[in-house]
Amino acid sequence: MRTRFSAYAKGKGLYVVKTTHPDNPLLMEGAKTKTGKVVSTLARDVEATCKKVRFYDLDIVRDVKGKGKGDAREHLVGFRYKCRVVGQQGFNELPEEKHAELSTFRTTRDDDGNEVWKFVDGIQGST
User: pTM for the whole thing?
Assistant: First the structure.
């Protein structure tokens, strides 16, 4: 969770994609090429957002073991953070915004067979 937040704070879109579970709708339902192949625009979307928004002050407020066993274990992480829109044309910096989210992470295996936790989805406004 903390490394993903740091990736947003630093505009590292590829890291966000790398740490997103394949079951995440943004990866599964990305844009389609002319041939019908699904391609995610998540990395570019994150990078574009990070040019306009400054993320800071992460606070983990809940950390709960979720359901599942083996390679499909889940974990819930509730967190709060602050941000400011900084790249809006005509404005120096907009007022601080406070956000909260309850995120689901699920285990999967990397290319070397190691277990890794990846972001599946989140509920905005909830912790």
Answer: 0.80
